[in-house]
Design brief:
six-stranded antiparallel barrel; about 270 residues; single chain; elongated; six-stranded antiparallel beta barrel
Amino acid sequence: MKHFFTTRVRAVLIAAVILAAALLIIGNLTGTTPMDMLVQGILTPLRTGASNLTAQVERMYDYVFRYEALEAENEALRQQIAQMEDAALTAESVSRENDRLREALKLQLLDEGYSLVDAYIISWDTNDWTSSFTVNRGTASGIREGMCVITSNKAVVGLVTEAGPNYAVVKTVLDSSLSVSASVSGYSGIVQGGYAQGQQGMLLMQYLPTTAVIRNNDQVVTAGSTVYPRNLILGRIIDAGYDEAGIAKYAVVRPAADIDSLEQVFIITEYTTE
């Protein structure tokens, strides 16, 4: 539409110029005879009209030219904005990656006895997404079944239960089939997932002695084994009671790892036992 409009204006301008030139030539050929004066009388209004038409067409052409220039400028600005948005997204992605790498480095420095492989979650279990997930590291990166998985703040996430060349399946601590030897305030017990008595997404610490003195917010850590290094964080106590037989205490534990928001995890491939 714009191209058609511009072409039309140019055609009118050319026609006006040709008409003005023709009138000028005819006007120069006329003399002072009655016939010449008659022709002059007829041509004078035409010359004025042609001059006005030419001026209007010039103004219109100038408008179209400025319109095209503004549209070109707007397009250039739109492209610049798109490039800036892409750059901002890239910068944000790089910043997040740097934060994760710093966390990994900080974790390595916390305990030099750990050998870690960082991994990113690529999918969740469709049946129970809090129970297990798949990461983008596998046997090619030194991952194998039975390795402990943690976060950057040493919170226990779960255990590798399957490993392929470029992937691994991690079962989280929220799965009821996972058991971890744990300790709280110097007392030992077993922590399991799948606790659902009004406390969805919590852990259950069982087999605590009846004499155990535990309080809300006490920290629960791993007791140490061939799978889980000592003093990894499992969570904090939010409730406690006695089992049905009354021979042992139990405690409800809020997991330290925020399973819902996990993106990156760290797999302990080797560690030094005490």
